[in-house]
Amino acid sequence: MTYGQGILYGAIQGLTEFLPVSSSAHLTLLPWLAGWEDPGLGFDVALHVGTLLAVLWYFWRDWWELARGALEGLRRGAPIGTEKASLFWKIAAASVPGAVLGLALEHKAEEAFRAPALIACTLTSLGALLYWSDRRPDSSAGVDAISWSDALWIGLAQAANDATTFFQIPSERVVEIGTQVTV
Q: Which residues constitute the domain of residue 80?
């Protein structure tokens, strides 16, 4: 891989990660469209880890407040006694399905989910889902309106996202399908 290709991969990852499109799909399609050798799933994961580190760095104060709220709740014997503590544990619960599915599909992901035809079909389905969700009535409910079952559904949707690049929707967009959440 050349430096220019690496920069282009990084730019595509950075531009598509926070849009309601599949950054993973775009990273997979780039070498196919450009006629380059596919750098593989490991390289994609490295790009996603870089994105994660950037997000953690940028939002460190928010994460610190959530973690402090969770630890304070544990210390007081009320682990979900505050909004911040509750949100922290709901984010943790929403992460479990993705972690389980990621471990279960670890070896199959390299071949099964990197086929351009599959990606084209799933991106088309995603477009239809986004179109439908944009037509749903809005609500002004806040983050505190997220229930435990909502958190698990968000986690399941994210797990499907990670597994197939099908539901490449940020968590807040998944919630918006049923409830408008303003974070």
A: 66-183
